[in-house]
Design a protein that fits this description.
single chain, mainly beta, Porin, twelve-stranded antiparallel beta barrel, 11% helix
Length: 245
């Protein structure tokens, strides 16, 4: 069977997201619905390239209620380790936002990671519970727990073990619609492989209207290459464009 192209995989994944979200109103920006479409030269998650250094098309739909509840879906093409063949990633999430005063906020969410057309013979779907505390839109600290983490790595296949991540991200607005962006995190895989690793990024973004353009350099410690070979994003520059509506 001829393998499907990355675009075909993405188109099918995005169609599922939009279908499950329902009939999105035309004036998304004026109501509880929002959406985004993006293209990036590499899809990097926690120091690891999910598209094997290749480009990714991404999109999602989100519903935010006035009471703080939210839910949505997001899709991207991926080339998952270790086979690096075209597949699709679907994220379905729900949660609650609340204010902690004038400048501080909190968010609790649960996300299901689903992989479609996945060439790997063993399952990879898993769940994640996250708690985020934010200051305005400048700084966010997130703790995430995966009760049933699954990973392929050079050290073998592991499944249904807990994993944790601790991440700090920030954005500093500058003049002319520019912002400096960055983040750092630690991913705890002790229950899976008996180790953990650090990763992060630093970059700059430009926002005008619904469009955001960005460029970031990613870095990670040697453990990422030890676990995922060329999947490590250490030293890699990534450019992206996001249209929000």
């Amino acid at each position: 069977m001829k393998p499907l192209s990355a675009f075909t995989v993405f188109a099918r994944a995005l169609a599922v997201v939009v279908t499950l979200a329902g009939a999105v109103p035309a004036c998304l920006a004026e109501g509880p619905w929002s959406a985004s479409l993006a293209v990036t030269t590499d899809y990097v998650l926690r120091g690891v390239s999910q598209s094997y250094g290749g480009a990714a098309l991404q999109g999602g739909v989100n519903y935010q209620s006035s009471s703080g509840w939210f839910a949505g879906g997001w899709a991207s093409n991926v080339d998952p380790y270790p086979f690096y063949a075209n597949a699709g990633e679907l994220n379905f999430y729900a949660g609650y936002d609340w204010a902690l005063g004038r400048d501080w906020s909190a968010r609790a969410s649960v996300t299901h990671y689903l992989y479609v057309l996945d060439p790997r013979r063993r399952p990879y779907d898993y769940d994640e519970l996250s708690m985020t505390f934010g200051y305005q839109d400048r700084l966010a600290a997130t703790v995430s727990y995966q009760p049933n983490a699954i990973r392929y790595a050079t050290l073998g296949y592991r499944k249904n073990k807990p994993a944790m991540s601790y991440e700090l991200t920030g954005r500093l607005p500058l003049r002319w619609n520019l912002s400096v962006t960055g983040g750092v995190g630690y991913y705890d895989l002790q229950q899976l492989y008996g180790l953990g690793y650090w990763s992060g990024s630093a970059g700059i973004s430009y926002t005008r209207g619904h469009l955001e353009l960005g460029a970031s350099r990613f870095f990670s410690d040697a453990t990422v290459r030890q676990l995922f070979d060329e999947g490590s994003a250490d030293g890699r520059w990534v450019a992206s464009a996001v249209w929000r509506f």
